[in-house]
């Protein structure tokens, strides 16, 4: 496979000292690729951490600074939004278990540095879904799915309610009761995820007393497994590289503790998520050089779904190594579009059995063409 | 040696470049690489951007890679604006391709340039102070702006004020002035020598044409200036020209409403806007006849 290089972008994220050496044409390419991948603010935060921002030429620098401003603003808004959600859910007595970007922000993880977050994702026990939905509606969130079919589709087969948008602020919340669809092949237990969730001390939130321990995030290994599942099972590859950067950042951060590596693979097996973990480790290491203990790599290979025939793995490499790049003309080859399409089909294949999938796709095709 | 301008490129060469790797133009304070196989785009650029600096195709950093390309051809030929492969807008008729490029470039600035606070306004300068006229479409802001720049004011922008929150200065971003419907004829009569680009008919805004930026405004594009007047114009048929002082608190609110990205800046943004209002004289202005309006603006007292 001879794909166009993305070393500029990867170096900017990992080894930014090279950035002081770039010429105008390289900056041009880097800003374009970074913007496309939604990683400009991340690059800006890495540069700030290395005290390099001032050494970058003014013209490209202002794009990094602009993205950083936007990311900072979004982060503030997420804190505010989380407070509003906690307030809305107070009558249910449930904790607010945050997922993905909002969780990284509230837990103040390195993965949140320069990461764009727009929607807030939460995980609630399925039996309390109705109570959570009503509580949110009472405070102004309205379901986005308008058609009866969409409502039924989400509620019968999916792992989340249709997105709910706040009628005044326009912000969106995704209420999950599981991390994979009910119709999917594997069924990671939400009870186990929720039982292991940890409260966060939220310095940024004002009314700590009121929230006292009610804001929670998944345990480190579960957070990583969810991130891997989202990227490698759900076919959400629009920001594939950004999501892989999340995974890389989580692994580097949590990986400083040996205990994390000891529980990671056993936990993946327990939650039926060893396949997405295998892919996450493989591609984070291949594309971003994420350091991994050899024993963990071996354990992931030996876990169910880990050992794959060489030809099959080569095929999956040819898909993921294309689709995980920014969706930009300078990072794609003639097979990229096909690879993205194949992974999209794969995600639907994993999402539901053919008896459900075919009527669903037929219905969607008809609605779109109408 | 002066830098080459777009005028130095023969039309057929320009068309060829636009259709392949694109041309890099210095459109202060930005650089854009523009591509388009559509002839009207080349025509508009050659007419209206003749004096803009042309940068080498290789080794240039461009803030924005934009293109207007053909969409579907049947039953009606459409064109699409692309920002580096991204298509943020629904397609328009091919006849609007050049106007589409102008609108797309505006979107690039307001959507990405968050080191600056952008405000929807016509912006001019005289005696070192900046006149900011924020106003909704239909208020006659662009017509008034065109009339003033033909009468001794320097054009900073007819579309957006770019406030640098660190210095409190307004950065010039001189681009062709967009005129609509009857305004096109009115300005043509006022300035028979003004140069206009292609006419886009039947757009959502009616007929649209762009007028070339005066050479002096373009030559001074690197000179930012201090805000001085904040004036809210309104075209009112049959009304005499009337300038009425306005409370600064109200002026601030309306300025903030017209800002595209003030929210991104948080508290420093709020403070930069209040500084702007504090050092500007605030007025409401109603008018129907341009000659009277020009006279009123000629007599504007210089703010402290």
Automatic annotation (TrEMBL), chain A:
Pfam families, alphabetized: NTP_transf_5
Alphabetical list of InterPro entries matching this protein: NTP_transf_5
Protein name: Nucleotidyltransferase family protein
Species annotation: Candidatus Accumulibacter aalborgensis
TrEMBL record, chain B:
Taxonomic path: Bacteria, Pseudomonadati, Pseudomonadota, Betaproteobacteria, Candidatus Accumulibacter
Protein name, as recorded: HPr kinase
InterPro entries: HprK-rel_A, P-loop_NTPase
Keywords, ordered alphabetically: Kinase, Transferase
Gene3D superfamilies: P-loop containing nucleotide triphosphate hydrolases
A GO MF label: kinase activity
């Amino acid at each position: 496979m001879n794909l166009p290089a993305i070393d500029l972008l990867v170096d900017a994220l990992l080894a930014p000292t090279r950035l002081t050496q770039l010429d105008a044409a390289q900056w041009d390419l880097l800003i374009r690729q970074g913007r496309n991948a939604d990683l400009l603010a991340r690059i800006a935060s890495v540069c700030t951490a290395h005290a390099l921002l001032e050494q970058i030429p003014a013209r490209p620098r202002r794009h990094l600074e602009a993205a950083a401003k936007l990311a900072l603003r979004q982060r503030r808004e997420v804190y505010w939004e989380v407070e509003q959600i906690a307030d809305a859910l107070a009558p249910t007595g449930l904790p607010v278990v945050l997922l993905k970007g909002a969780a990284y922000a509230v837990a103040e993880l390195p993965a949140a540095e320069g990461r764009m977050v727009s929607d807030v994702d939460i995980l609630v026990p399925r039996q309390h879904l109705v109570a959570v939905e009503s509580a949110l509606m009472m405070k102004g969130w309205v379901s986005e799915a308008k058609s009866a079919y969409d409502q039924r589709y989400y509620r019968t087969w999916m792992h989340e309610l249709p997105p709910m948008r706040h009628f005044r602020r326009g912000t969106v919340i995704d209420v999950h009761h599981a991390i994979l669809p009910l119709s999917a092949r594997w069924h990671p237990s939400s009870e186990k995820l929720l039982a292991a969730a940890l409260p966060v001390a939220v310095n940024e939130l004002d009314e700590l007393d009121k929230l006292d321990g009610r804001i929670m995030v998944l345990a480190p290994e579960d957070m990583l497994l969810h991130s891997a599942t989202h990227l490698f099972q759900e076919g959400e590859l629009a920001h594939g590289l950004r999501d892989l950067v999340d995974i890389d950042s989580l692994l580097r951060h949590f990986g400083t503790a040996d205990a994390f590596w000891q529980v990671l693979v056993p936990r993946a097996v327990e939650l039926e998520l060893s396949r997405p973990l295998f892919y996450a480790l493989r591609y984070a290491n291949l594309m971003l050089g994420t350091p991994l203990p050899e024993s963990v790599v071996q354990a992931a290979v030996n876990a169910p779904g880990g050992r794959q025939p060489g030809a099959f793995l080569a095929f999956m490499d040819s898909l993921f190594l294309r689709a995980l790049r920014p969706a930009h003309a300078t990072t794609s080859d003639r097979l990229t579009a096909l690879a993205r399409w194949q992974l999209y089909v794969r995600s639907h294949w994993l999402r539901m059995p053919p008896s459900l999938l075919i009527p669903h796709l037929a219905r969607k095709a008809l609605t779109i063409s109408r | 040696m002066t830098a080459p301008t777009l005028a130095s490129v023969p039309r057929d060469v320009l068309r060829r470049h636009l259709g392949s790797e694109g041309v890099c133009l210095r459109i202060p304070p930005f650089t854009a690489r523009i591509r388009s196989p559509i002839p009207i785009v080349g025509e508009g650029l050659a007419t209206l951007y003749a004096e803009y600096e042309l940068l080498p195709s290789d080794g240039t950093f461009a803030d924005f890679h934009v293109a207007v390309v053909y969409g579907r051809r049947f039953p009606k030929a459409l064109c699409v604006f692309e920002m580096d492969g991204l298509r943020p807008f629904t397609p328009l008729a091919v006849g609007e391709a050049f106007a589409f490029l102008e609108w797309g470039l505006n979107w690039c600035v307001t959507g990405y340039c968050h080191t600056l606070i952008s405000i929807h306004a016509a912006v001019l300068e005289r005696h070192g102070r900046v006149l900011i006229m924020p106003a909704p479409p239909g208020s006659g802001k662009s017509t008034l702006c065109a009339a003033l720049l033909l009468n001794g004011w320097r054009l900073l922008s007819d579309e957006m004020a770019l406030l640098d929150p660190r210095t409190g200065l307004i950065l010039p971003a001189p681009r062709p002035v967009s005129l609509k419907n009857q305004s096109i004829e009115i300005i043509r009569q006022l300035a028979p020598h003004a140069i206009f680009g292609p006419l886009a008919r039947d757009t959502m805004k009616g007929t649209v044409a762009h007028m070339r930026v005066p050479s002096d405004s373009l030559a001074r594009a690197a000179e930012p200036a201090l805000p001085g007047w904040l004036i809210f114009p309104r075209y009112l048929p049959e009304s005499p020209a009337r300038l009425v002082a306005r409370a600064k608190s109200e002026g601030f609110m309306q300025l903030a409403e017209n800002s595209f990205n003030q929210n991104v800046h948080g508290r420093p943004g709020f403070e930069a806007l209040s500084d702007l209002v504090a050092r500007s004289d605030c007025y409401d202005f109603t008018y129907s006849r341009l000659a009277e309006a020009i006279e009123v603006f000629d007599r504007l007292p210089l703010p402290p």
